[in-house]
Amino acid sequence: MDLDLKDKKLLFELDFGARQSYSKLAKKLKLSKQGVEYKLNNLIKKGVIEGFYTVVNVPKLGYIYCRLTLVLQNLDPEKEKEILDYVIKNPKFFWVFTTQGIYDILLVMWAKNITEFKNAVDELISKFGKYIKLKTETITTDVIHYEQRYLLEIKETKEVHIKETEERVKIDETDKNILRILVNNARIPLVKISKDLKINPKVIGNRIKKMEKMKLIECYRPIINHNILGYTYYKLFISLNNINKEKLIELKKYVKESPMIFYLLEGIGSPGDLDIEVMVKNNQELFDFIKDLRNKFPSMIGEYKTFMFYETKKVRYLPF
Question: What is the pLDDT of residues 140-159, one digit of tens each?
Answer without folding.
Answer: 999 999 999 999 999 999 99
